[in-house]
Amino acid sequence: xxxxxxxxxxxxxxxxxxxxxxxxxxxxxxxxxxxxxxxxxxxxxxxxxxxxxxxxxxxxxxxxxxxxxxxxxxxxxxxxxxxxxxxxxxxxxxxxxxxxxxxxxxxxxxxxxxxxxxxxxxxxxxxxxxxxxxxxxxxxxxxxxxxxxxxxxxxxxxxxxxxxxxxxxxxxxxxxxxxxxxxxxxxxxxxxxxxxxxxxxxxxxxxxx
Length: 209
Fold this sequence. Notes:
Blueprint: H1 3-18, H2 40-51, H3 63-80, H4 87-103, H5 108-119, H6 140-145, H7 156-173, H8 178-186, H9 193-202
Helix pairs in contact: 3-4, 4-7, 5-9, 7-8, 8-9
């Protein structure tokens, strides 16, 4: 193909990204986390957070909390139907998002907004720099805080576990600032397009029980 074709394609991708959208073809084109050295205490904490496996089954302190979750699940399932047509798949996905976001102390709407921007809810999305899955986790994280098996990043709960733990880590590094924390997640710290896109997408997934 001609160089002009690739130039036009690159320009179109940049245009769509700046508008808060990602052009999805065979790849996901979101950015990627940058590998940084971790002190031993941070590495140990992140590894521990990743390793504690448990099925994503919600537990509730009372009936009202459970009913609130079920109302959320029904509302989110309706909103997600255009991306995932099968009810059981939507339910499993949303239950896992809810579980892993709550486990990491994250706003579930923020996590869904991030997934929308990163992979457009495609389980097997791969970016041009190798980020994988729903939350576009870079393979180096599996080496740093996992068992090194990058194929696991296409497993639903594993991908969301890594993504949520990493996002929590970046938010903590930025003292809770979502703009800067999201920038770190994308490898574009201090630049507006990515955090603006995620925070814009987040609004679609907000819910008042």
